[in-house]
């Protein structure tokens, strides 16, 4: 069997267009565009690329991009004060503090300070709790993007067996919560799981977010499984996912490539979350 390749790049472009199509009516009603504030501390080259792309795509969707670049040596108090100002600014609907932060700064403290209603990353514990409780929440962008790809591919997910590999607050935990809310039977595996093939053998859905290059082998998969690869690992052979693509593609029913799968979904969902935050704040 040769798996269908899930085109995240095309899905993300379509989602960005759908988001952009709602902006003129928002502007008509409110006299302003939805605003996304992005805070970048320091000069980490990968983070600088992400932030540049976010700014470009935010503007392309007709939204306001408010960028704050702080020196790598900025003190916690100054960063906290900026978050306080953005929380109070009525033209700011979404706040994203680019991670990782330099080691002298406490990311948890910053995340806790962001107004949960402006937390378009969905990292605030209030939003994690809302998601876990089935209440309206800002949902982290990458797992929500994975869910959109899965529903597009499979339709109703109810009753499916899903294995999420990885237990981070950013991907694994919210992914498991989202799949549980869609009535999947969810197993959360991780780097210490003793017999991963045992769990994967029955999985209709596999989401790999463990951060280890080519960790998941195709022979472990249930034939016809849908495989979502969140990994972005830079190796000597170039960019690879957490899934060994070639062996997995010969076993799976559908699979996301790296690059061009989950990656482009993150910013598209960020724009969607910003629009949702703007609509909620409006009324
Ligand atoms: N760094 C890499 N991806 C992300 C993201 O989605 N949000 C934030 N805040 N930082 C990141």
TrEMBL record:
Keywords: Amino-acid biosynthesis, Histidine biosynthesis, Hydrolase, Methionine biosynthesis, Multifunctional enzyme, NADP, One-carbon metabolism, Oxidoreductase, Purine biosynthesis. Residues 140-281 form the Tetrahydrofolate dehydrogenase/cyclohydrolase NAD(P)-binding domain. One of its GO terms (biological process) is methionine biosynthetic process. Belongs to the tetrahydrofolate dehydrogenase/cyclohydrolase family. This is Bifunctional protein FolD. It comes from Stakelama tenebrarum. GO terms for cellular component: cytosol. The keyword Transferase does not apply.
């Amino acid at each position: 069997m040769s798996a269908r390749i899930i085109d995240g790049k095309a899905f993300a472009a379509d989602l960005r267009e759908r988001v952009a199509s709602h902006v003129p009516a928002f502007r008509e009603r409110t006299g302003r565009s939805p605003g996304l504030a992005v805070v970048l501390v320091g000069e980490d080259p990968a983070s600088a690329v992400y932030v540049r792309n976010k700014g470009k795509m935010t503007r392309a969707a007709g939204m306001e991009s408010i960028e704050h670049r702080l020196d790598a040596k900025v003190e916690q108090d100054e960063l906290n004060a900026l978050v306080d100002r953005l929380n109070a600014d009525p033209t700011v609907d979404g706040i994203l503090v680019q991670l990782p932060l330099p080691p002298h700064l406490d990311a948890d403290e910053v995340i806790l300070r962001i107004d949960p209603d402006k937390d378009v990353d969905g990292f605030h514990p209030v939003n994690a709790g809302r998601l876990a409780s089935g209440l309206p929440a800002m949902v982290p962008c990458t797992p929500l993007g994975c869910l959109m790809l899965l529903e597009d591919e499979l339709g109703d997910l109810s009753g499916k067996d899903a294995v999420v590999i990885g237990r981070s607050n950013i991907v694994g935990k919210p992914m498991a919560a989202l799949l549980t809310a869609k009535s999947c039977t969810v197993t959360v595996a991780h780097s210490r799981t003793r017999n991963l093939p045992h769990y994967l053998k029955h999985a209709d859905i596999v989401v790999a977010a463990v951060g280890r290059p080519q960790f998941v082998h195709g022979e472990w998969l249930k034939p016809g499984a849908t495989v979502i690869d969140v990994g972005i690992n830079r190796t000597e052979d170039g960019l690879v996912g957490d899934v060994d693509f070639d062996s997995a593609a010969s076993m799976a029913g559908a699979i996301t490539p790296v690059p061009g799968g989950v990656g482009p979904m993150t910013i598209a969902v960020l724009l969607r979350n910003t629009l949702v935050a703007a609509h909620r704040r409006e009324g």
